[in-house]
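Retry 2 of 3 after timeout on previous attempt. Resubmitting structure tokens to design endpoint.
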């Protein structure tokens, strides 16, 4: 169980990026976080994995107050939270397999620079992850030669070898065309279902969140203004909660992402 209690993140006297968020997310849930640009979605993810510290409030995971962790235990927590980013964050000139093995670095005291410096079991884990993401044939290719969708699936494979307790995905499909976006979301959903991993995913599109997630959280001005199963996010609620620019259906609701991102 992931639990946020009265989480607040302020930047200076004027900006409250997250404003009193309390949530309970049971293990194995796939949660889509939606909201306008600047609503506080990324800040919430970064508070959970302790990339940043809250101004007030706590995050608990399975009863442990992760906001109080320091040193080795903090590093372990960060390794337990696999992050997926909009821009994939791969090392383009390195091959795909090495990029995936980077996910093991949090489990090691030293950082290997060559594939052969990883153990046989680590390499097997990486190969399995690539197979699962349908990238078994691309292992020796330079990451920069892959399509955006393939690169994001490499990033998911890297997250898998991290053997995380949860996956935090920050706009994972915002740079992808609809076909690749669907493949990436399907991959995250499959991992969520098959491994029982909690996935918390910031998304631009109501339709993607509806199609993929068990639960949708809507944020506005740092606060949670909607929290429920996808079928309860009706058009009137979208309009009530997110203003007149909100639209239902397949288009982006409020963020005006690039046309290529419209799923
Ligand atoms: N390091 C920072 N310093 C100052 N203000 C910040 C910082 N990080 C975020 N903010 C502000 O906090 C608010 C929430 O930002 P956040 O990035 O969490 O929103 P978001 O919903 O993820 O938006 P987007 O969809 O554009 O990524 C915004 O007003 C943003 O400008």
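Retry 2 succeeded. Sequence:
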């Amino acid at each position: 169980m992931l639990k946020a209690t009265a989480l607040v993140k302020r930047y200076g006297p004027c900006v409250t990026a997250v404003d009193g968020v309390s949530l309970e997310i049971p293990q194995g849930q796939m949660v889509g976080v939606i909201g306008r640009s600047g609503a506080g979605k990324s800040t919430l993810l970064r508070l959970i994995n302790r990339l940043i510290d809250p101004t007030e409030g706590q995050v608990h995971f399975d009863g442990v107050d992760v906001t109080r962790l320091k040193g080795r235990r903090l590093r372990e927590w960060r390794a337990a939270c696999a992050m997926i980013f909009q821009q994939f964050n791969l090392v383009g000139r390195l091959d795909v397999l090495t990029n995936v093995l980077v996910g093991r670095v949090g489990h090691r005291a030293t950082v290997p620079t060559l594939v052969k410096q990883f153990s046989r079991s680590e390499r097997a884990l990486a190969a399995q992850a690539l197979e699962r993401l349908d990238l078994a044939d691309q292992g020796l290719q330079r990451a920069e030669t892959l399509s955006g969708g393939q690169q994001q699936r490499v990033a998911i494979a890297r997250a898998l070898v991290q053997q995380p307790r949860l996956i935090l995905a920050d706009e994972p499909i915002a740079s992808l065309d609809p076909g690749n976006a669907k493949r990436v979301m399907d991959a995250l959903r499959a991992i969520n279902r098959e491994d029982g991993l909690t996935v918390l995913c910031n998304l631009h599109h109501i339709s993607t969140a509806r199609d993929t997630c068990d639960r949708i959280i809507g944020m506005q001005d740092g606060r949670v203004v909607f929290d429920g199963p996808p079928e309860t996010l009706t058009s009137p609620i979208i309009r009530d909660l997110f203003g007149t620019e909100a639209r239902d259906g397949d288009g982006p609701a409020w963020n005006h992402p690039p046309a290529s991102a419209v799923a």
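Attempt log closed. Strands lie at 2-11, 15-25, 30-35, 56-61, 64-65, 81-85, 166-170, 198-202, 215-220, 223-228.
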